[in-house]
Amino acid sequence: MVIYPYLPTFVLNIEKQIKMKRIGLMTLLLGISLTGLSQTSKKDNMKTTNVIERNHYVHAHGMPTKGKILMVASSPTTSKQTGWPIGFWAAELTHPMHVFQSAGYEIELVSTEGGKIEMDGYSNPTDASGYSAHDVVSLGYMQQDWFNEMLNNTKKMTDVNPKDYAAIFLVGGQGPMYTFRGNEDLEKLFTSFYENGKPSAAVCHSTTLLLEAKKSDGKLLVDGKTWTGFCDQEEDFADQAVGMKIQPYRIESEAKKLPNTHFKTAAPFSSYAIKDGNLITGQQQNSGAAAAELVVELLEEK
User: Does the residue 41 lie in any domain?
Assistant: First the structure.
């Protein structure tokens, strides 16, 4: 401010007050502007954080496949407990298969003895019991000629070369309780995938294989592992539903007798799968898709 000595003092004071008010007004306007920018920025951030995007690969017709997955099912047999003809559980084949095919993988289905395989009656969505009437995925596959042809003409599991496949997936059902446990050929096949670092999966009653399967060092494959399978509570439910004891033994009870392994279960019949290294297990028929998704995730990491 320029001081003019000949001006009265009160005039100088007025000029000073006017300039001070101008500075105050500018400061106020600047504060309002910055507050507005801050609020706008917050709103923009809120908009950004509320946006959820989801994207994943879905295999389209004609696109090249990413590799081949070996699925192993039980050949038909007869239950010594119930006298029923038994085999594989439909959803434990079809639901994982749908996940694999959608992710771009080709499937080859083999069985313990080769030839025609049969689904457990209660797993068939057209069965008079209505037990699996809700399983529209299996019902959809059953309308496909290629699917039925696949069930009618499976290779024997000993006729395949593990080097031709990216992963192995054991299909459950009632049959595996008789055809998988103690099956040295299947133990050797599964372990070869596992020891070569490939995703090695089993669901429901097919996990019975893990009660005895051993690695090349002589230790159980599940030594030091956390895994799951059909639980005792689910066996109780099934026994009560049909009014008799269905299985010759129980996987959870047997697993808890093993040293240095952690058999873990979730709520009965909930979708539950565990990945421990490249070993993947699913609790029961409702867990097949979840286990398959873990297989795909592991394959995509490579």
Answer: no
- Structurally, how many domains does the chain consist of? 1
Q: Please tell me whether residue 279 adopts helix, strand or coil conformation.
A: strand
Quick one: CA dihedral 290, 291, 294, 299, positive or negative? negative
Q: Which domain holds residue 265?
A: 67-301
Of 295, 257, 251, 288, the C-alpha closest to 271 is 288
- How many Å apart are CA 5 and CA 195, to the nearest integer? 99
Out of 56-70, 78-92, 285-299, which region has the weakest mean confidence (pLDDT)?
56-70
| In a domain? residue 179 | yes
Residue found under tokens 């050949």: 75
The answer to the question of residue 131 being in a domain is yes
- Token readout for 79 is 């239950």
**Residue whose C-alpha is closest to residue 111's, from 68, 79, 148, 159:** 159
User: Radius of gyration of the chain from Cα atoms?
Assistant: 32
> Is 0.70 topped by the overall pTM?
yes
